[in-house]
Amino acid sequence: MKIISDIQELRDHLRGQNRASFVPTMGNLHEGHLSLMRLARQHGDPVVASIFVNRLQFGPNEDFDSYPRTMQADIDKLEKEGVYILFAPTERDLYPQPQEYRVDPPQQLGDILEGEFRPGFFKGVCTVVLKLFSCVQPKVAVFGKKDYQQLMIIRQMAKQFALPVDIIPGETIRADDGLALSSRNGYLSTEERAEAPELQRTLQEVREQVLQLNSRNTNALSELEKAAVVKLVGRGWKPDYIAIRQQSDLAPASNESLQSGEPLVILTAAKLGKTRLIDNLEI
Ligand code: PAF
Prior knowledge:
Elements: E1 2-4, H1 7-14, E2 21-25, H2 31-43, E3 47-51, H3 71-80, E4 85-87, H4 91-94, H5 107-110, H6 114-117, H7 121-136, E5 140-144, H8 148-160, E6 166-170, H9 190-195, H10 198-212, H11 220-234, E7 238-246, H12 255-259, E8 264-272, E9 275-282
Parallel strand pairs: 1-4, 2-3, 2-5, 3-4, 5-6
Antiparallel strand pairs: 7-8, 8-9
Helix pairs in contact: 7-8, 10-11
Bound molecules: pantoate.
């Protein structure tokens, strides 16, 4: 595997390749990321991965400084997966001048759910992803469904800018007890790790309740959301949201969307101790 930090060197290496498949990451790779590498291999060749902890998507009180950086272990894992190039720019490589041009996703997608609790997050994500696309110029790029809203926003960005990149979704990989794999799981204490799968279990309960919903009560869905929040609070969580949304646009689900069989998704973010976890479940 070639490890490259310089944009020009990356372009030189990829010259003439028009089927490259790209997986952007922030490192601290786990089985979830590696499954995305395998998916990338099915959709293009060569596979290019990136590791860059993107300051632009972290809020002032978030974990940019403490975000786990495990470069050597990550390199070993990517080599085993047969990744052809690891693009690992420094901040100076990727942002040689302050990044004043930014990509601002539309409010109705970028300022809800994660965007409401992490202002500017998706602006930072879209800006770095567009820049990484411009460096790698892949034919396809793979993003995990664990970051459901991110996947949707990147898809819309690629569509609106007519980027010649197909966005491929990768399924969420879970531990045996159901906890979605995440770099931030490493922050959990032993007790918190034992409690953490409750987040997915709660989403499964909400899904069952939604499927059984047989009510004309227009508040039924928001009552389910509130009850799930109350349950998690009772177990010591601090939920930011549990939201039943339409898969197509992440707009709140309504009785009409239920009746018309509109595909729905339940999304959540909640803090356990100091660790903020996110998860989702499609209905
Ligand atoms: O999902 C992530 O790891 C990051 O948001 C991404 C897409 C690599 C952009 O920094």
